[in-house]
Design goal:
The chain is mainly α and 199 residues long. It is built from ten helices and no strands. Helix 2 packs antiparallel against helix 5 and helix 9 packs antiparallel against helix 10.
């Protein structure tokens, strides 16, 4: 536990508590993604066919990309790390769906919800709306490139899942942010009252 704390602790001096916490969360998330991906590759590589083993190299390169947001977050560049993590995850998921194709590729589009969850947690609501619109376009383009797949299955499946999932995520994060703002306001009022009493 102490080693993990040392690995995610920002090396840059950050005075703002929330900024410091976000830097640690992003560093931890990036590191966890690296460990999970490496573990997944090591566990499953023995079961791959010769043609599937060729796909291990791009997977390793993709995993290595998460070192960049990890590095940024430890240096205190939280917004850059958030953007990098979202872009890398999006590119890897998109690459996988087009590389695999067919119904399996369509199934991989369900993973876009993780990026939606991440963006809604760390960015403004506007960016989440933009991202969901981009996901709808990506899935529609994928369907056009795979005419053997039924449009109705794509709409009822990953498209509906990503849109309704985003709506639920936005509702929950909006409620959470409102609660946090209310807590902060109450804290500021109590601090002001305490100061007035001391005066």
């Amino acid at each position: 536990m102490r080693l993990w704390h040392r690995l995610v602790e920002p090396t840059a001096a950050i005075t703002d508590t929330q900024h410091h916490r976000e830097a640690r969360v992003i560093a931890g998330l990036s590191l966890a993604l690296i460990f999970v991906a490496i573990g997944g590759i090591l566990v499953t590589v023995s079961r791959y066919t010769d043609t599937q083993k060729v796909a291990v190299l791009p997977a390793c390169v993709g995993t290595a990309l998460f070192v960049y947001p990890y590095h940024l977050s430890r240096r205190g560049k939280v917004q850059g790390a958030i953007n990098a993590l979202a872009v890398i995850a999006s590119v890897l998921i998109s690459s996988a769906i087009y590389a695999v194709g067919g119904s399996t590729g369509r199934d991989i589009t369900y993973y876009y919800i993780m990026v939606t969850l991440f963006i809604s947690a760390f960015s403004r609501r506007f960016y989440t709306f933009l991202w969901v619109a981009a996901v709808v376009v990506i899935i529609a383009v994928f369907q056009l490139f795979n005419p053997a797949l039924e449009w109705s299955d794509t709409i009822r499946g990953p498209l509906a899942f990503n849109v309704f999932g985003a709506a639920i995520i936005l509702t929950v994060t909006s409620f959470w942010n409102t609660r946090e703002r209310e807590k902060r306001t109450q804290l500021e009022i109590s601090e002001r009252k305490r100061t007035e009493l001391l005066v």
